[in-house]
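Sample 1 of the test manifest.
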Amino acid sequence: MSDCQHHWVMTNVKYGFVIFEKCYHCKELRTYFTEDDSLLLGDEYREGEHFYNRLESAQSFTFDLICTRCNRLETFNDLIGLFYCTSCMPNCQVEKLQQQYAPHKTWIMVAFGVLPDAKKNPIPQAKLDILSDYFNQRRDTTRSRIKIVSFELIADLARCKGGFIHDVGLLTKEGPSEERKPLF
Amino acid sequence: MPNIISLQTIKETLNAQIIVADSGLDDMIEHVYASDLMSDLLAFGKPNSILLTGLATKQAVISAHMAEFKGVVFVRGKLPKDNADKYARDKKIVLLSTQFDMYESCVRIYAAMSPGVLPTSATIEEQPPEHTLLSQDFHIQGRDFSNAGNVSTEIKEILKKIGIDSQISRRVAISTYEGELNVIMHANQGTARLIVSPTAIEVIIKDQGPGIPDIEMAMQEGFTTASEEMRAMGFGSGMGLPNINKNTDELRIESKINDGTTVYMKFNIEK
Amino acid sequence: MTVQELIKIMGLTPLSTFEDREVKGVFISDMVSDVMTAAKSGNLWLTIQTHKSIVSTANLADVSAVVITGGKKVPQETIDIASKYNIALLSSPLPTYTLAIKLHELGIEAE
């Protein structure tokens, strides 16, 4: 079936929140996606050996891709959001790639994954390529292209000021966003 | 003469599927809103409108109800989530779903809205307001986002029952909703008191919250003290007080740091 | 019709610096997830969202321009990012529905 020239469309779009948590004891950072907004106001809690403290949350949305030609479903359970770089750290690998690709009219976008799992099992390059294909196949690529890279390239997650692409303020208006404080 | 179109015609012109239409499709629509941002509706929406939206949630229906809309059309074939249909049924709001996208839906409704289409029935009968005095208190639970909007909805229902003009009760509901949200965001609890007299409706919202340090600044659009979490949820727009100001005939705010805030709102009933 | 031509005809206000290109069809939504799912390359995107998220979304969906309707004030940060990515960010005082009707009368159809 690999001869199919895949034509991807988004499916299973879910709206929710990315939660950043850190364990007091082992200092490990974990991230996950949830559709449950009650988690946003929760206190720290214990889970096994860990004692998680909520650091930050952000609106996001997740999705899968399906090929309209061969019906192949590509799931993205390990993707919790698409993230944009704000060039906040000059020595960050994402920013360096941006600089490198900008003259070729290729824009970098970051696929944000699940921590700590991604440390052992990074988002596979093949999946990142499918994401890039999805955005490129529907655009006028003579003008510009999209390249999706993994969030592991971010130099310092705690200081990163990038943002998740999300549906802002569907309930009410949101004021101008303030600068985000370092996570920890 | 404004262009008017019936819900039935909108349904036909959009090849829409009926999700909720217990109250029929005879109502006439005067304005069309194409938006997914619900605060815009609350701030600028006019009654007897229809909402075209890609937001197929209860929030859309609640906002449409607050703004006194007749119906909501979900575009791009979206179907209701989180009991949006149940809410619409309760509030007698027509809910439709169309395969067309927002632009195509706008264009089709416009094309169907020819000036030749006249309302089939006369305007809604006006009931004289009962000259009874009413005073009722409501409790607002702080930090309880899941019940945000309950008090304002209840007040609106009461005003409707006693025959208050829908334009006024709509302004009361919107202002109370914003006031209610402020309490939920900033205080542990608060109360809302509704007082109806033959000439005016008053709503007084009190909380034991942190107080507002600079009321003048808080009155500016875009000012917010909501935390990152709250803003992530879409609250804390900094539209609250300015939105109340826009909808009230009289607004007084008294606030003491670490003591609490009282928002006094008055709406005149015109003869 | 190109973005520059449209600006002249419809009296739109350009906010960012951008490279002119052809407008093909219109897409209306305030949900970036919907734009990413359903907008087509070259579409003119009408929205009342002004958060900087819209620039990345416009970029990913390859729309020809973003029109902020209802005369909503756009944060400088959003304008700066749009200029950086060459995304045409325009403003119109008209509400979304009214602008959509005018674009239709101009002969721009949904793609």
